[in-house]
Design brief:
Mean pLDDT: 94
Largest sheet: 7 strands, mixed
CATH superfamily of the largest domain: NAD(P)-binding Rossmann-like Domain
Radius of gyration: 19 Å
Low-confidence stretches: none
Helix content: 25-40%
Number of domains: 2
Distance between the termini: 10 Å
Order of helices and strands: EEEHEEEEHEHEHEEHEHEHHEHE
Length: about 300
């Protein structure tokens, strides 16, 4: 079967289509024929060596798929080695989804949707009426966080994005305006995956008891040392977030995901789907993602 593999760390150029054996499920696992695989920024970190040790090479990246089990269930699943025509998934990691939920929207709800949900609910602990700023607001996580902030009762939602076109998309999704630093008034909650200079500017625009939630460093910028005295003067907090331990907690995966699916099917949440690439063109998908040329969910189709 076709899979995408890399045997050395690097950029998108190390991704190579290969023919590998069909995986064999173990106890508590099932084989899934892949309809579509999701592409996430974290996949690029696997490829460049940020997430993996050399001892795990060669490796097939990818952490999420929509597909069908041998008994006919259409499922959304967290997996490993997802860039392939068939994957093995734990039964406990499968969520049955309806036929009317297309693969792109379903995949947008898994890693990105659950990240947005937990950023607001678990990390920021958003309270009704608070103001929220979402960085990278047209991306996979950001576009959902803009909508969920409104759904969860935010009083004001501002969007930050890299281009006027992306700003317009965030406004269409429900943002009240575009964030320009320094903010006036200051924000209660700021969600940041860009890091670098943008993180520092955001920190200076937190309201009293505000929370800046950091969940990435897409800019690959250097963070300035964080002086605790500065946080004291701001009367604010910096909160770190990583999705994997959040999903491992009781109620961290299935219940939020079912809520996201219900909101989507009910027309209250609009996952933004982006470009679809053939599985064999995963290298191009990564190149476009790293170049910030994509909007919404990026999908590979076997």
């Amino acid at each position: 079967m076709l899979a995408i593999q890399f045997d050395r760390f690097g950029g998108p150029e190390v991704l190579t289509p290969v023919d590998v054996p069909v995986p064999v499920p173990g106890p508590g696992e099932t084989l899934v024929t892949v309809e579509a695989a999701g592409v996430n920024f974290a996949d690029t970190l696997q490829v460049d060596g940020s997430y993996l040790s050399p001892g795990l090479l060669p490796h097939v990246p990818g952490g999420e798929v929509v597909g069908r089990t041998g008994d006919g269930r259409r499922v959304l699943a967290k997996v490993t080695r997802g860039y392939a025509e068939r994957v093995v998934a734990r039964e406990s990691a499968l969520v049955v989804i309806p036929e009317e939920l297309d693969a792109g929207r379903a995949l947008a709800l898994l890693t990105q949707g659950l990240t947005a949900w937990h950023l607001l609910r678990s990390a920021a602990r958003l309270r009704p009426g608070e103001s929220v700023v979402v960085h990278s607001a047209a991306g996979g996580v950001g576009s959902l966080a803009v909508q969920l902030a409104r759904e969860f009762g935010a009083g004001r939602v501002l969007a930050e994005a890299s281009t006027p076109e992306k700003e317009r998309l965030a406004l269409e999704l429900g943002a009240d305006g575009v964030a320009r630093y320094p903010l006036d008034p200051r924000a209660d909650v700021i969600l940041d995956a860009a890091g670098g200079e943008l993180f520092d500017r955001a920190l200076g625009s937190l309201a009293d008891y505000g929370r800046l939630v950091t969940y990435g460093n897409a800019s690959r910028g250097v963070f300035a040392p964080l002086d605790p005295a500065r946080l004291s003067r701001l009367n604010a907090a910096v909160v770190g977030f990583w999705l994997r331990p959040a999903l491992a907690r009781p109620g961290g995966l299935r219940e939020p995901l079912e809520e996201l699916i219900a909101l989507t099917l009910g027309g209250r949440l609009r996952p933004v789907t982006g470009v679809e690439y053939p599985l064999a063109e995963a290298r191009t998908a990564h190149t476009d993602l790293l170049g910030r040329r994509t909007t919404g969910k990026v999908v590979l189709r076997p």
